[in-house]
Amino acid sequence: MADRECPLEAVPLPAEVRESLAELELELSEGDITQKGYEKKRAKLLARYIPLIQGVDPSLQAENRIPGPSQTMTTVPKQQKPRPTNSRDERFRSDVHTEAVQAALAKYKERKMPMPSKRRSVLVHSSVETYTPPDTSSASEDEGSLRRPGRLASTSLQSHSNVEPWLDRVIQGSSTSSSASSTSSHPGGRPAATLAGSAAHAHIDLHSAPPDVTTGLVEHSHCERPQLASVRGVPRGYSGSILETAGGKLWSRSLKLAYTLLNKLTSKNEPLLKPGDRVALVFPNSDPVMFMVAFYGCLLAELVPVPIEVPLTRKDAGSQQVGFLLGSCGVTLALTTDACQKGLPKAQTGEVATFKGWPPLAWLVVDGKHLTKPPKDWHPLAQDMGAETAYIEYKTSKEGSTVGVTVSHASLLAQCRALTQACGYSEAETLTNVLDFKRDAGLWHGVLTSVMNRMHVISIPYALMKVNPLSWIQKVCSYKARAALVKSRDMHWSLLAQRGQRDVSLSSLRMLIVADGANPWSISSCDAFLNVFQSRGLRPEVICPCASSPEALTVAIRRPPDLGGPPPRKAVLSMNGLSYGVIRVDTEEKLSVLTVQDVGQVMPGANVCVVKVEGTPYLCKTDEVGEICVNSSATGAGYYGLLGITKNIFETIPVTAGGVPVSDGPFTRTGLLGFVGPDNLVFVVGKLDGLMVVGVRRHNADDIVATALAVEPMKFVYRGRIAVFSVTVLHDDRIVLVAEQRPDASEEDSFQWMSRVLQAIDSIHQVGVYCLALVPANTLPKAPLGGIHISETKQRFLEGMLHPCNVLMCPHTCVTNLPKPRQKQPEVGPASMIVGNLVAGKRIAQASGRELAHLEDSDQARKFLFLPDVLQWRAHTTPDHPLFLLLNAKGTVTSTATCIQLHKKAERVAAALMEKARVSAGDHVALVYPPGVDLIAAFYGCLYCGCVPVTVRPPHPQNLATTLPTVKMIVEVSKSACVLTTQAIMRLLKSKEAAAAVDVRTWPTILDTDDIPKKKVASIFRPPSPDVLAYLDFSVSTTGILAGVKMSHAATSALCRSIKLQCELYPSRQIAICLDPYCGLGFALWCLCSVYSGHQSVLVPPLELESNVSLWLSAVSQYKARVTFCSYSVMEMCTKGLGAQTGVLRMKGVNLSCVRTCMVVAEERPRIALTQSFSKLFKDLGLPARAVSTTFGCRVNVAICLQPNRLGKLAEQGTAGPDPTTVYVDMRALRHDRVRLVERGSPHSLPLTESGKILPGVKVIIAHTETKGPLGDSHLGEIWVSSPHNATGYYTVYGEESLHADHFSARLSFGDTQTIWARTGYLGFLRRTELTDASGERHDALYVVGSLDETLELRGMRYHPIDIETSVIRAHRSIAECAVFTWTNLLVVVVELDGLEQDALDLVALVTNVVLEEHHLVVGVVVIVDPGVIPINSRGEKQRMHLRDGFLADQLDPIYVAYNM
Predict the structure, then answer these.
(1) Distance (Å, whole) CA 1403 – CA 804
(2) Distance (Å, rounded) from C-alpha 1160 to C-alpha 1251?
(3) Phi and psi angles of residue 653, each rounded to the nearest 5 degrees, phi first
(4) How far apart, in whole angstroms, are the C-alpha atoms of residue 605 and residue 181?
(5) pTM value?
(6) Which one of 13, 696, 1101, 1208 is CB 3.0 to 4.6 Å from 17, fit for a cystine?
């Protein structure tokens, strides 16, 4: 690959350059810098040390060059000849597969799918900076953090006299690279001379294999003298003399290390380590020699080595789990090299930092100068260890937990013998090893078996492979290696890089061991490699795939014919059959097949059987796929410290169908799925870890990766990096596919690719993909040697931390186990017989407040029938009694009104109306005022001259375009003859800005009341009868409908009377009101009640809280208000805004202990979570625990329930009502319009709190929504209400009388058919509780569930938006608010993102999951918007219909819209 190389003197880099390099590495590994930027900066730093000279690949010159000074290869940034891109990823595709995929895709004509829309700013990802040329060495398919192009130092070893200085030099040299990351760069392609020459680990160019090296080898076998002696048949007394003569470095240094470990680690005399203690080995991938010294040193000292990866940063993927393993193994000491130790992240003290989740470790550097020479008479204990643990290999499970597999000395020995026999290894043979020598096959062949057989080993570090993918082939060629150990990835890379290399020959190889030969895609790599290299001496029978697992070590390996192996075989299996666990050789259906190659026969001395994956380990039939189990002396012994799982995995007793054990010895489960074919050849079709069970079918993650990769991988997938895993949603596994997107791929292309992948997987595997996500290049967590860290990726996906740049979800196709939609039964008529007050065996659900007649003399009621009369009477009897105080944001009183002041102001307004606006009695007048005393005065002014006032919220000056049309609409619909307002608003209504929003010429007369002359009216209008219209109450419902209701004088005074009685309001009381004064109960409390009852109202406009959140609570405390009213939006502002400030408020003297009742005014289901957190938060300021309560009103009756707490005289007599009760209902039953009470905390439970105590004079009944018959206790139906203060009807332009009749004068279809009821439009139920109320009767509690108009009818069931929204808000911490609605028959979920835009797409899957899990609904569209987009009205209710209109008109400016397919 490298055209330019540079002979390089080994110049030690100055310390500061090394430090800068180390920092760069860290930046790159943590993603703070792009690959391109990294290469630029690195080239700059090294520029003066690397004279670039055009030249040939030095590794090729090696043969005809005298072993000379070390040369190093560096990658030249990016201008190298580009690797032919289109051929990437052949390794995953046998041509069959690619053709199959193309054929499958051809079946689908371009089906149009709606493309997700994304706000442009989110596309930042693919900026030019992040563009990485396809062949840079940044994260390749299988590589980890080692993104550094390694350098290769090759040194030749002349005689052992210079071994020592050479090692020093290597160590020196290595420190020049920025050590830490496992590439610490030294001897790159070094044939680490046999183990023994370990010393020589370096690049011992053994051309002429000088004699000293062979002697050097002998010493090797010694390193394991106690165990190996018997193997080699050497007598036990065999002294170390050969070693001494041989100058055996591995032996002498391992001995030195063993002595140091056992005797020299503590200053005191007691040893730090005892035999059997575990020791961590932290070595970079480029230093096999030091690793071997450490490994054998531990064995000699009878310590247990635990090799792990070098942790690069404090937050490596999976590093916490490794820490957990070290902790559970009781590791206290880590061995490492000098270079590596320098590169580890450091704490302030200069010590190696403690990694997250790791136990505290002492670090020991094993380089020569840190070790102590043992005294002449010191020998390691040479007893036979047998069943004792020799070493522990870590293994990461599917869930991401890391366990340690213990391998005993006996197994280790048996494994080495078995490999020797199976591979026919002999002394002085050369083995080229490309694998990680710290674990798995790399350790077994390259470190253990090779030493036992005194072979030469050439280790090629990963970093070198990335820089020069041909290095291993060149080494095989130059050293005439007889065996090579690779993965399919390495074969694939060398295929891409081999063009133009004519002079390599692989004829020396007798075995090319493919360590991951069990993977589904290895066959295509093997075939492609053979095709190309057969012309260069590679014989077909040389390729030997093998299968291994951490638990069973090597399971099977293909032997070449000369070692007696049968001819290799292939199986073409039906993918569909495999998914049901059976083997069907597929002939006709060419599309969905899996081609697998055999992995040879079982290891010598082992027995193999195939058992069922789940449940009892029954043997499989010959045509079934199961888990391969091995019975052999060469398997792992167990998981360290985990006895339970160990028993299941390492001591399985397979049984026949009749339950008879197959053999006496226990078997070890390998975690490999497969079957045994003809000639006893083992075939592997997948791994248990990659198994996904969807429905009853099993799919293998690797197969799905292979299919995805066959869809034009080069154009979109960055280096073929694809992760496939399953997540459990709604009791079944769902397949998730995550791929890294090439930086230059466009949105449209990516989407196209995603759609094609879905189709390919669907047609080949017949399974739906639940979620397909693309993430920016290089962002998936990496496993130590490349590869993708699957469990960490899955964790991030589930936690919403994956940050994809493209998401496609297909819940509709793959969620097939939803409960059946509900079929509505044709309703039974009014046949449930009424017997007295029972319906279908239950008491009729009706309740009423106290009787009005008994409560006061009718004389006073008559006197207070008309509010204008009441005001005049108060102005006459108590002229100076203050009625209103208005506060501003600073908490100062801006205006007040006593009875007489209000009366005089009202007279002035009445005079102005009659004279200037020339209105006559009965005309409608719109009052457009900010909250304040002027509004109240204008209201009474209208009543004084017989006009009908209509209060209208003024337009918002900053948002005229949306608020002014509503004002205009109310003025027009109410047929107002005149508009009363202030000067400022009058200017606004006529301004240019207003003209842009509405037609300003059509306003009726606009009159400002700021400075009208002091005039009296001749006579105050007195209505002819109490049923005359007093005022119109207009409001926009949550469903977006503008509705005005008519309130007569009789209803108005009845409303005031009920509230007065319920809340015990009399002139000496002070109440604080923080509500909007424009409609509903807010208007009544603000404008009507004080005049009727004579109490003083402290008015706090909610708008002022935006500039001073604590205003309302400070006012309550300052005026010692016993009763206060607020809305949910006010409560929410206080909870969010004052959460952290209760201490500050206490210092300012805010004390809420005066409050008896704080009522939340709302037309919805009580928000329990909010009221509870409010109570809890302000308990510190003295707010009584039971003070907060809820109310309920609606359009037809603004006050049905109020929950005053025990107040005044009634409290002493114990006559006030009981505390509000909470019940838990089953949310699933609610969807079917049923109420099922459950215990708190049970699954699907929903807490509901009663909405307050029914007001005096009010009667409530629950009626069936369709038959209109009365319902029984605890049955869900529509709440109907009858009371003197019901509104008299809707006021509309269109005179829709039928609507009126239906809502305001409904009668029950049977039972009490005489009473006239008003339908509230809300679903709820009544429940008789165990409590008694003031009259001694049992208390009936009314529970409001939600508005009928708002409910969503989906799958035959009735859903309340708030329930779905609550689930969604819980799904992720950055979801600030959520609203749902339906569009056609799709459920649309709009979420406000309170976080970074690039995290937006994380929410799509989480939202879909939670709605499926908790509500059994498939989300059709997920819309992610900025905070504040969901419109909320003054009562704090979401305006879902406005939102829906905005969505359909494309006005939301969403960050992302995902259409779930």
Answers:
(1) 10
(2) 10
(3) -110, 100
(4) 40
(5) 0.78
(6) 13
